[in-house]
TrEMBL record:
Protein name: 2-hydroxyacyl-CoA lyase
GO molecular function, one term: thiamine pyrophosphate binding
Family: Belongs to the TPP enzyme family.
Assembly and interaction partners: Homotetramer.
Native source species: Rhynchospora tenuis
Enzyme type, top EC level: lyase
Alphabetical list of InterPro entries matching this protein: DHS-like_NAD/FAD-binding_dom (IPR029035), HACL1-like (IPR045025), THDP-binding (IPR029061), Thiamin_PyroP_enz_cen_dom (IPR012000), Thiamin_PyroP_enz_TPP-bd_dom (IPR012001), TPP-bd_CS (IPR000399), TPP_enzyme_TPP-bd (IPR011766)
Catalyzed chemical reaction(s): a 2-hydroxy-3-methyl fatty acyl-CoA = a 2-methyl-branched fatty aldehyde + formyl-CoA; an (R)-2-hydroxy-long-chain-fatty acyl-CoA = a long-chain fatty aldehyde + formyl-CoA
Ranges of residues in domain Thiamine pyrophosphate enzyme N-terminal TPP-binding: 12-125
Known EC number: 4.1.2.63
Chain's role: Catalyzes a carbon-carbon cleavage reaction; cleaves a 2-hydroxy-3-methylacyl-CoA into formyl-CoA and a 2-methyl-branched fatty aldehyde.
PANTHER family: 2-HYDROXYACYL-COA LYASE, 2-HYDROXYACYL-COA LYASE 1
Pfam family, one: TPP_enzyme_C
Length: 569
């Protein structure tokens, strides 16, 4: 005779919920519905916190950013068919940015597939282009192992997304409690594979190149941030005196205000350096492919990346495959035996520092002007000062929008690692609210401040309700210039044809009261069109640490079309 517990039956939903908890998922983002509602409730019962969104696109963006911030896969749960398709936004974002994520979607009954079932889709084929691994459970007993495999694969080597398909009939199958427990323990967490170190001879070659360079530079990106390489980066920069350039999301590994920061002398630094140590950053469009004319013809690249394929693609002078922190530790150790330091009077360091100071002074002069109706710079300076006044732990900044993100990148100051989330490698707009929610969940001690355009905000503005529901400390500042890039920029010749009286494709309703959207859910809304109004809204909302939207009224003609990427439009 068996005890009641032994004879109790466990269904696929419960097993999935327990497998997620066993795999170490502390949070899950998503939208419930047929057939996954019970997966969410069972996971919650097993100790996983479920953050319920309005749409899977935002939830997917949240899961991807959570993976970046925590180093553990962010989990997205979606319904079948259309839910899975909406989730592809997040999955593709994880893939392009190389962040660990696991997407789990319900799917239609296997027996009815091909007959035109409710929300029928070959979901494995749909996710394939964006994942490291796509798995489908064909019977309940496979669930624990698939969950463990997806979690381990998402983080192994170059991080990325994995997918698990859970058909409705599999979720409804049952097994005994005894069998469930043994399946869960058999699938126990595997020991993560160690990333091997690069050959020591290659490390020596890299150090020798740096030692003999006339104009060395270190560039680091979000791969170094993901690797938590800030300590090793600091040691490298401070012992060698080599100037550094962070990519947008690499900002904060060392403070932007550091005397060796080349951020404000970016064109000079990349245009004139002769040896560039690039750590956890791809030589893609964000770094001008590492090619002339932006880089010099004979620059020698030393690339550090966890991905061998990435290094093979770029064919650098020296390629060091490995974990960014570990490789920098090896480099630092190699330098320690025979240290070198450029020093402040080194001509290259002086040139960078002078250029950076000049550019900062020019920017400060622009920022000092108080322009009302607001341009982008005046409010950005006020926001910068309010964020800096928060001290440590520094707020996490979420940024999107063409002009808002461009100006924000130049003006806002990052002083701590992994405190900037922006449109990233995908150049995606609409990530803002999802990123805010992920940041507030992943880093509960930090305030989260979103600085975004009205267009970026509009993609997922309804998620302000999610902020209120979970009472997250997020202040969303909407740069409201009434449209994508702002006011109507068409020439009179372009305003013609039968639909000439329609609003421009770039326009929204002028003067939209975005702050009242937040008030509709019981959050705090502010409208700010003057420096005093903005300062008071920032000071009140930052100290309240409660969900707030600041509707910041900007001159509709202050920005440029396509921001800094006009040449690509
Ligand atoms: P950015 O946008 O900051 O320039 P990218 O996303 O282009 O950065 O590049 C990040 C790179 O970091 C990717 O090529 C990825 O393979 C790599 N990477 C990810 N994790 C690690 C790690 N632990 N160590 C080294 N490199 C890593």
């Amino acid at each position: 005779t068996s005890t009641p517990t032994e004879s109790a039956l466990v269904d696929g939903s419960e097993l999935a919920g327990r497998a997620l908890a066993a795999a170490g998922a502390s949070h899950m983002f998503g939208v419930v519905g047929i057939p996954v509602t019970a997966v969410a409730t069972r996971a919650v019962a097993a100790g996983v916190r479920f953050i319920a969104f309005h749409n899977e696109q935002s939830a997917g963006y949240a899961a991807s950013a959570y993976g970046y911030l925590t180093g553990r896969p962010g989990v997205l749960l979606t319904v079948s068919g259309p839910g899975c398709v909406h989730g592809l936004a997040g999955l593709s974002n994880a893939w392009v940015n190389t962040w660990p994520m696991v997407m789990i979607s319900g799917s239609c009954d296997q027996a009815d597939f091909g007959k035109g079932d409710f929300q029928e889709l070959d979901q494995i084929a749909a996710v394939k282009p964006f994942v490291k691994l796509a798995l489908k459970a064909t019977s309940i007993s496979e669930i624990p192992r698939l969950v463990q495999t997806a979690f381990a694969t998402a983080c192994a080597g170059r991080p990325g997304g994995c997918y698990i398909d859970l058909p409705a009939d599999v979720l409804h199958q049952t097994i005994s409690e005894t069998e469930a427990s043994s399946l869960l323990s058999e699938a126990a967490n595997p020991i993560p594979p160690q990333i091997p170190d690069p050959e020591i001879a290659e490390v020596e070659k890299a150090v020798s190149l740096l030692r003999h360079a006339a104009r060395p530079l270190i560039v680091f990106g979000k791969g170094a941030a993901y690797a938590r390489a800030e300590g090793a980066v600091k040691k490298f920069v401070e012992t060698t005196g080599i100037p550094f350039l962070p990519t947008p999301m690499g900002k904060g590994l060392l403070p932007d205000t550091h005397e060796l920061a080349a951020t404000a002398a970016r064109s000079l630094a990349i245009g004139k350096c002769d040896v560039a140590l690039v750590v956890g950053a791809r030589l893609n469009w964000l770094l001008h492919f590492g090619e002339p004319p932006r880089w010099s013809n004979d620059v020698k690249f030393i690339l550090v990346d966890v991905s061998k394929e990435e290094i093979e693609l770029r064919k650098p002078h020296v390629g060091l495959v490995g974990d960014a922190k570990r490789v920098l530790d090896l480099i630092n150790r190699e330098i320690k035996d025979d240290p070198f330091c450029l020093g402040k009077t080194h001509p290259w360091v002086e040139a960078i520092s002078k250029k950076a100071k000049d550019n900062v002074a020019k920017m400060d002069a622009q920022l000092a002007k108080e322009v009302v109706p607001f341009n982008f710079l005046t409010p950005m300076r006020i926001i910068r000062d309010a964020i800096s006044a928060q001290g440590s732990p520094a707020p996490i900044l979420v940024s999107e929008g063409a002009n808002t993100m461009d100006v924000g990148r130049a003006v806002l100051v990052q002083s701590e690692p992994r405190t900037r989330l922006d449109a990233g490698t995908w150049g995606t707009m609409g990530v803002g609210l999802g990123y805010c929610i992920a940041a507030a969940i992943a880093e509960p001690n930090r305030l989260v401040v979103a600085v975004e355009g009205d267009s970026g905000f509009g993609f997922s503005a309804m998620e302000v309700e999610t902020l209120v529901r979970y009472q997250l400390p997020v202040v969303v500042i909407v740069f409201n210039n009434g449209g994508v890039y702002g006011g109507d920029r068409r020439t009179p010749e372009e305003v013609t044809g039968p639909h000439k009286d329609d609003p421009a494709p770039t326009s929204f309703v002028p003067g939209a009261a975005y702050h009242t959207l937040m008030e509709a859910f019981g959050g705090k809304g502010y409208r700010a069109s003057t420096p005093d109004e903005l300062k008071s809204a920032l000071s009140e909302s930052f100290s309240a640490r409660k969900p707030a939207v600041i509707n910041l009224i900007i001159d509709p003609y202050a920005g440029a079309e396509s921001g800094r990427l006009q040449h690509k439009n």
